Structures are given as structure tokens and as C-alpha cells.
């Protein structure tokens, strides 16, 4: 039925302008790259019942963050499968299936939000949407490398640049849509105007003779709402965060754009070369560790180079992906309490937007730079500079706690933006690195299998940042509670300190609320919640630096037979022949 989508039907005629292909690649990557703006959904998803503040029945931040992780895991798994399939059927068919998965994943996720079924959100956005991410990600890479053999780094930079820039476009659109579909819950009155009862950690109020669950919205919660609200008491379950409507709208829009882009893909004919271009000499290629041979996709898995590059990609991604998943939350927690007049909800959203900008710029800049300084040297830059920058973040967080100066915000902002250029640059440079090491014939399939490193990082990064943060958070709450006057605690929360664990589980007790009744001079521990994570990420980059230093050219015994050297040793595995172009 779909035979007409295969690559033999989309071979470009002589004279075709190769610059018509990059826009289609960028369009698809802009759509799937919106996954990097996932943290925009964190606040509304953890307040589906309470809307203005988290209610006991709402999902926790850690459970919501894992949806992003599942999507990245299935990105890598589907890319590992689709890479080899791509070589058989071509980019158009893969792009069409990607549109179905990514758009459909949003629709299923929207139903999960409407019905408050977390598993549907995982299935739709995480599993099905993750498959759409992987299929859409690999579809243009090998195609553009073949269209631009003279500028491999630039080609992969163009292909993957859109993925980094997806959040740049998606962030304001998502914020706007959330505002459009937002509905404030029923307002009962200002704080202190209504008698409240605490049962099982939940706050209840009497309305028309019935006890209803309520949440208390202070200045911070009201400021985070997309519409003007009053501080006070709101009824749980009477509002709408707008998340479901946003999911439905985006699912339809992404499907339409990706289908149009997929039908714009074309592939070059066998043996095509850009006019006036000649391949580099053996000496020039050797200096940049660029092979003139090809390694079969299955044989590549038997080389140490594949696993060294797997470690390089995995640890580079791990160090950045956990931060991206909670970027908005981290900015708010580190600087929202110390510089509240500057770092508000709008500032945090802009921060997510700028991450996307620098992520996108870094993909094109570093990948293009690698054409001149070599792929290996480019990754050396990532790991040496990245280690220093990650270590600077805890320093800035510690300093802003005792000296709330804008200087530390600027330091944090600048360090993270440079980190994200290198994070994106690592993704954009790795396909060209693979083409240099293993040749271009199977680079799409090899790249797909290497993206399992991304799947692994999609688990390691958020796991590290959420678990280490939770450990720090629980420790900080216990420490603050021990300093608070017991009578003030009871008056504030309607229960004693001995019920602290229950109150924390019900989201009744938070660091911010404890700071309101903490003794004068108590330092807010919120900015230091991510320090341990940053030290761990720096250590991973050091390991990646060592792995990159060990990369060498592939041994000749792994090379495939060339047409000129048929019968020579070094044939492809299990007698495999070179795939059709």
C-alpha cells in the first residue's frame, strides 16, 4: 500500500537543487524538538486538580518528569530500529510514520490528562510520541550527508539544528495555548477569612453545608497563573490548567506540518557528487581521521570505536538532558526565592526559550566548526570547558543564598547557555563523526543504533537530578522543621511536627512555607538543592573526555569490500554486500 513512499520513487533528477532538502529536515526537527520544552508542562500537570496550587491528589513532579524520560528512551530504541529500515525504504516513508506517531502521541496524552490517567500520558507522549521522535530524528541525517559530502558537519548541523530550536518556537506557543484553555477554580475568599480543617494532611473548608477540599494560593502561586488571580482559598477540582486542550491542538498541528515536510524529501542518485567537488586526498583525510572505506552496520558493533563513541554521546547527553527536563523548575528554585523581583514565571519561561536558542545555535556552530578543527578536537572542547562550567553552578547557587546579587544570576545564566550550545553541538557533530570513522554507506543505521546512548541518558539524567534533588529537599525540610517553633508549626499547618512526613506527602508542608515561620537569619536551602547533581554531571564529562581521547581509526579488517577490491580480505560480515544507495 505504501510502496510509492519508498526511496526508489523519490530519487532526484539531474540538476536538482540540493538546498531544497534542508528545509524539510528542519521543519520535522522543529516539530519533534518541542520535546525540549517539556518543562513548560510540568507546572500545569502537577496542579491538575488544584490548578493554582498542587492538591494531594495531583501528580508529583518526579512522576511527570519521567514522561520526558520515557519519550527519550523510545526515541533511542526506535532510532536503533529505524536506522536500518531507513536505508531500505528511504526518508519519506520514515517521515510519514513519524508524523503519525508524534501527532497521535499528543492526542492520546491529551485524553490521559482529561481523564487523569497517568498511564495514558506515558503511553501517548512517552511511548508512541517517543517513537515519532526517533523516526523523525534519523529520517534526514544520512540523506543530508549524501547531499553534502563536501560539508558533513554543516549538513548534520542543519539536519539537527531544528531539533534544538523546536523549543524556541514551542515555548511561547505552549504558554499561549495554556493561557487560552486555562480556567481558574472557584474562589472562596482571602487567607484567614474561612475556617479550615486538616484531615490526613488535606485542607478542607465548609461550602453550602458540605466539606470540600481546598488549596491555599499565596503570592508565589498567584504570580505563576496565566491570568490575574487573588491570593486566597480555592476549591479543588473546579478549574482547568489548559494542558489537555494544548495537547490536542499541538497534536493536530504537528501532524500536518510533518506530513508536508516528509513529502518534500528527495534522495540523490547513485554516485552523485556536487558540481566541482573532489573527495579529499588520503593524507588530508587521515589528518582529520576521515576514512575512505565503509564499515557494515553490523560489523560496526564489533569495533571498540562504536562503544567509545557511545560513551561519549551518552555522558554528554546525560549531563545536559536532566537539566533541560527541569530547566524552568530549577531556575525558579535557585533564584526565584533569592531574586523574586527578577526571576518570576515569565523570566523562567524565557529561560527555557533561550535554552532552545543556544541549543539550536550550538548545533550549527559546533558542527560547522568540526569541519575545520576535526570531530575529535570538537568533543575535547565540549568536555574540558563543560566540566569547568558545571562546577561553577553550585558556586553561583551558594553565593546567591548569602548575597542575592544579580551577578550570580548572570554567571549561572551564561554558564548554562554555553553548556547547552555544547549539548546541542554534540548531537549535531556525532553523525559526521560516525561518517568519518565508519564511512557514509551505513551512517544512518549506525547513527540510529548509537542513539541508544540517548535512551540511556534519558533515564540517567532525570533520575540523577530528581533523586538527588529529592534527597536534598527532604533533608532541607527536616532541618528547617527542627528549627521552627513547634507552636508556630501547629498554627501554620494545623498539625504537629510529629506528622511532618504525612504533611510533606500531602504537599501541605514545603520549604517556602517553612521559611515563612523560620527564625530570623535562617538561610533558604532551596538554591542548593541541585549542587550534588552538578558535581555528578562534571564527573561524567571527565569520563567522556577519556573515552574520546581513546578513539582511533577503525582497523582495516572491519572494512567492507570495495568494487575495486572484490575478493580481498575484509569483506562485510556474513557475506553482506553494500546496500543500495
Automatic annotation (TrEMBL):
<feature type="transmembrane region" description="Helical">
    <location>
        <begin position="119"/>
        <end position="141"/>
    </location>
</feature>
<feature type="transmembrane region" description="Helical">
    <location>
        <begin position="61"/>
        <end position="82"/>
    </location>
</feature>
<keyword id="KW-0812">Transmembrane</keyword>
<feature type="transmembrane region" description="Helical">
    <location>
        <begin position="410"/>
        <end position="434"/>
    </location>
</feature>
<feature type="transmembrane region" description="Helical">
    <location>
        <begin position="533"/>
        <end position="551"/>
    </location>
</feature>
<dbReference type="GO" id="GO:0022857">
    <property type="term" value="F:transmembrane transporter activity"/>
</dbReference>
<dbReference type="InterPro" id="IPR036259">
    <property type="entry name" value="MFS_trans_sf"/>
</dbReference>
<feature type="transmembrane region" description="Helical">
    <location>
        <begin position="446"/>
        <end position="465"/>
    </location>
</feature>
<feature type="transmembrane region" description="Helical">
    <location>
        <begin position="244"/>
        <end position="265"/>
    </location>
</feature>
<keyword id="KW-1133">Transmembrane helix</keyword>
<feature type="transmembrane region" description="Helical">
    <location>
        <begin position="94"/>
        <end position="113"/>
    </location>
</feature>
<feature type="transmembrane region" description="Helical">
    <location>
        <begin position="378"/>
        <end position="398"/>
    </location>
</feature>
<feature type="transmembrane region" description="Helical">
    <location>
        <begin position="153"/>
        <end position="173"/>
    </location>
</feature>
<keyword id="KW-0472">Membrane</keyword>
<feature type="transmembrane region" description="Helical">
    <location>
        <begin position="21"/>
        <end position="41"/>
    </location>
</feature>
<feature type="transmembrane region" description="Helical">
    <location>
        <begin position="306"/>
        <end position="326"/>
    </location>
</feature>
<feature type="transmembrane region" description="Helical">
    <location>
        <begin position="346"/>
        <end position="366"/>
    </location>
</feature>
<dbReference type="Pfam" id="PF07690">
    <property type="entry name" value="MFS_1"/>
</dbReference>
<dbReference type="InterPro" id="IPR011701">
    <property type="entry name" value="MFS"/>
</dbReference>
<dbReference type="InterPro" id="IPR050327">
    <property type="entry name" value="Proton-linked_MCT"/>
</dbReference>
<feature type="region of interest" description="Disordered">
    <location>
        <begin position="562"/>
        <end position="581"/>
    </location>
</feature>
<protein>
    <submittedName>
        <fullName>MFS transporter</fullName>
    </submittedName>
</protein>
Amino acid at each position: 500500500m505504501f510502496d510509492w513512499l519508498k526511496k526508489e520513487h523519490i530519487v532526484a533528477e539531474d540538476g536538482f537543487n540540493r538546498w531544497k532538502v534542508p528545509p524539510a529536515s528542519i521543519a520535522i526537527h522543529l516539530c519533534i524538538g518541542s520535546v525540549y520544552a517539556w518543562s513548560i508542562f510540568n507546572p500545569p500537570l502537577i496542579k491538575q486538580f488544584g490548578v493554582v496550587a498542587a492538591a494531594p491528589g495531583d501528580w508529583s513532579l518526579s512522576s511527570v518528569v519521567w514522561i520526558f524520560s520515557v519519550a527519550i528512551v523510545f526515541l533511542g530504541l526506535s532510532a536503533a530500529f529505524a536506522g536500518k529500515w531507513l536505508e531500505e525504504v528511504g526518508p519519506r516513508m520514515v517521515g510519514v510514520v513519524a508524523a503519525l506517531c508524534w501527532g497521535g502521541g499528543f492526542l492520546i496524552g491529551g485524553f490521559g490528562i482529561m481523564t487523569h490517567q497517568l498511564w495514558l500520558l506515558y503511553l501517548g507522549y512517552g511511548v508512541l510520541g517517543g517513537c515519532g521522535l526517533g523516526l523523525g530524528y534519523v529520517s534526514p541525517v544520512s540523506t543530508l550527508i549524501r547531499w553534502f559530502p563536501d560539508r558533513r558537519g554543516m549538513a548534520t548541523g542543519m539536519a539537527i539544528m531544528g531539533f534544538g530550536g523546536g523549543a524556541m518556537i514551542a515555548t511561547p506557543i505552549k504558554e499561549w495555548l495554556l493561557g487560552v484553555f486555562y480556567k481558574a477554580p472557584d474562589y472562596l475568599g482571602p487567607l484567614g477569612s474561612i475556617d479550615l480543617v486538616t484531615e490526613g494532611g488535606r485542607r478542607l473548608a465548609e461550602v453550602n453545608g458540605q466539606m470540600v477540599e481546598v488549596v491555599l494560593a499565596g503570592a508565589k502561586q498567584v504570580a505563576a497563573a496565566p491570568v490575574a488571580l487573588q491570593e486566597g482559598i480555592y476549591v479543588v477540582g473546579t478549574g482547568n490548567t489548559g494542558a489537555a486542550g494544548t495537547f490536542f491542538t499541538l497534536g493536530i498541528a504537528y501532524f500536518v506540518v510533518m506530513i508536508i515536510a516528509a513529502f518534500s524529501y528527495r534522495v540523490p542518485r547513485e554516485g552523485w557528487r556536487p558540481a566541482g567537488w573532489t573527495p579529499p586526498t588520503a593524507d588530508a583525510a587521515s589528518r582529520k581521521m576521515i576514512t575512505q572505506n565503509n564499515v557494515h552496520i553490523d560489523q560496526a558493533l564489533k569495533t571498540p570505536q562504536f562503544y567509545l563513541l557511545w560513551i561519549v554521546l551518552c555522558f554528554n547527553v546525560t549531563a545536559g538532558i536532566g537539566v533541560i527536563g527541569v530547566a524552568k523548575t530549577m531556575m525558579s528554585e535557585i533564584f526565584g526565592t533569592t531574586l523574586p523581583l527578577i526571576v518570576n514565571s515569565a523570566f523562567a519561561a524565557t529561560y527555557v526559550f533561550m535554552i532552545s536558542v543556544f541549543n539550536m545555535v550550538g548545533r550549527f556552530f559546533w558542527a560547522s566548526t568540526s569541519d575545520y578543527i576535526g570531530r575529535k578536537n570538537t568533543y575535547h572542547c565540549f568536555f574540558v570547558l563543560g566540566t569547568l562550567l558545571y562546577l561553577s553552578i553550585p558556586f553561583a547557587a551558594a553565593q546567591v543564598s548569602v548575597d542575592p546579587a544579580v551577578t550570580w544570576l548572570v554567571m549561572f545564566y551564561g554558564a548554562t547557555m554555553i553548556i547547552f550550545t555544547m549539548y546541542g553541538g554534540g548531537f549535531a557533530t556525532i553523525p559526521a563523526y560516525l561518517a568519518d570513522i565508519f564511512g557514509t554507506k551505513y551512517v544512518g543505521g549506525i547513527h540510529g543504533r548509537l542513539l541508544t546512548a540517548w535512551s540511556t541518558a534519558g533515564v540517567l539524567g532525570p533520575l540523577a537530578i530528581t533523586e538527588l534533588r529529592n534527597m536534598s529537599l527532604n533533608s532541607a525540610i527536616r532541618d528547617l522543621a527542627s528549627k521552627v517553633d513547634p507552636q508556630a508549626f501547629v498554627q501554620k499547618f494545623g498539625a504537629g511536627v510529629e506528622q511532618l512526613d504525612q504533611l510533606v506527602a500531602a504537599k501541605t508542608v514545603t520549604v517556602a512555607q517553612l521559611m515563612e515561620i523560620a527564625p530570623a537569619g535562617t538561610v533558604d536551602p532551596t538554591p542548593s538543592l541541585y549542587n550534588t547533581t552538578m558535581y555528578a554531571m562534571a564527573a561524567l564529562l571527565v569520563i567522556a573526555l577519556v573515552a574520546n581521547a581513546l578513539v582511533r581509526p577503525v582497523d582495516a579488517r572491519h572494512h567492507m569490500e570495495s568494487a575495486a577490491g572484490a575478493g580481498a580480505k575484509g569483506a562485510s560480515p556474513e557475506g553482506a554486500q553494500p546496500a543500495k544507495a
